[in-house]
Amino acid sequence: MTTFGKVAVALWTSGRVSDEGAEMWFDEHPRFVCLPFRERSDAQVLLFLAPQAAERALAAMNAPAGALTLPSVLVTDGPLTPRQVSRATARGMARFLDHGMTTMSEVAEALIAAEADAEAREAKSRPNPRGGQARPPAGDDHLATGFSPREIEVLRLLAQGSRIAEISARLNYSERTIKNIVHGVVHRFGFRNRTQAVAYGVRIGAL
């Protein structure tokens, strides 16, 4: 549901975060409409504020039978285990933020990015009048994945088993640049390491 250009966010909290406090922040933020979690079918993106409650949030991510899996942002104490990352991404997690290091402004940015990614994926899969599926212009795959073209290139080579030095030589970048690219992905998505970043890229079809 979109109201005058606003993003509809269904909010789930663990009880350690004040529902009233979070809802007051949303009331003062012109970009969002905050919905109770029970009305998540009307939302565009889900927000899980779950300090010390990652498992409870993961359980709450399960979509009701027949419902669409909505993109979600998970804010909890990091890092997640590889198994938790796998479960969360399978249930729609688009962004992970470490509760102890995250401001509400960063949460807002993550919500907007998750919703934009979902819209781009929907547009990419939408049939076009000439048959087949509509695709974004060449080089715009990052709109649907959250990765830049250069990040996709590096992650794809990592997925193939290439080492940093090999990627550096192949792409004609310094090893430091390659490491910075990988670090940027790991930090932005809240992954524990490059292995989780590659696994996520493979799962969403970016690689």
From TrEMBL:
<dbReference type="Pfam" id="PF00196">
    <property type="entry name" value="GerE"/>
</dbReference>
<keyword id="KW-0238">DNA-binding</keyword>
<dbReference type="InterPro" id="IPR036388">
    <property type="entry name" value="WH-like_DNA-bd_sf"/>
</dbReference>
<keyword id="KW-0805">Transcription regulation</keyword>
<dbReference type="InterPro" id="IPR000792">
    <property type="entry name" value="Tscrpt_reg_LuxR_C"/>
</dbReference>
<dbReference type="InterPro" id="IPR016032">
    <property type="entry name" value="Sig_transdc_resp-reg_C-effctor"/>
</dbReference>
<keyword id="KW-0804">Transcription</keyword>
<feature type="domain" description="HTH luxR-type">
    <location>
        <begin position="140"/>
        <end position="205"/>
    </location>
</feature>
<protein>
    <submittedName>
        <fullName>Response regulator transcription factor</fullName>
    </submittedName>
</protein>
<feature type="region of interest" description="Disordered">
    <location>
        <begin position="118"/>
        <end position="145"/>
    </location>
</feature>
